[in-house]
Amino acid sequence: MPKEIRWVVVGLALILGGVGMAAPLLFQGGGEASGIDPADTAKLALGRQIYDAQCAVCHGAGLEGQPDWRQRRADGRLPAPPHDETGHTWHHPDAQLFALTKYGPAAIAGGSYQSDMPAYEGVLSDDEIWAVLSYIKSRWPPAVQARHDQITQASRQ
């Protein structure tokens, strides 16, 4: 193999290896130790405070979301969904919820996806994002929490 091609192959291998090692960090955010914990009272208190200040204006004080959240508005965007058990938040594993919150839906779904949901990177710390997600999960019935645990566990396998 010519030297030039060998260096291109080595360079590509290093780049792909770096991306492969960074991907879990992107989607795990703060990592396992910082994950969603609906039993951590300190995390729940912080999460509620942040939810009230940052999230309730769109998702509702009671996590009820906006009316007709499944129907696109005239601008093509979806209203804010509920974060209670009637919505789809609990259908997504911890890492995906973290990534959606930190980086915003457009970064996860693709640049052409439009949403009113902002990215919270630079606004909230990773621990604050986990606290908000912990608060949201703490409001779900036990059966929904258990199902969400199963979804998260399956996503890690």
UniProtKB/TrEMBL annotation:
Alphabetized SUPFAM superfamilies for the sequence: Cytochrome c
Keywords: Electron transport, Heme, Iron, Metal-binding, Respiratory chain, Transport
InterPro entries named among the record's database cross-references: Cyt_c-like_dom, Cyt_c-like_dom_sf, Cyt_C_IC, Cytochrome_c-type_DH
Cofactor: heme c
Superkingdom as given in the UniProt entry: Bacteria
Signal peptide: none
Entry keyword annotation includes Amino-acid biosynthesis: no
Keyword match Electron transport: yes
Pfam families noted in UniProt: Cytochrom_C
Domain Cytochrome c, chain residue ranges per copy: 42-140
GO molecular function: electron transfer activity; heme binding; iron ion binding
PANTHER family tied to this protein: BLL4482 PROTEIN, BLL4482 PROTEIN-RELATED
Name of the protein in question: C-type cytochrome
Organism: Pelagibius litoralis
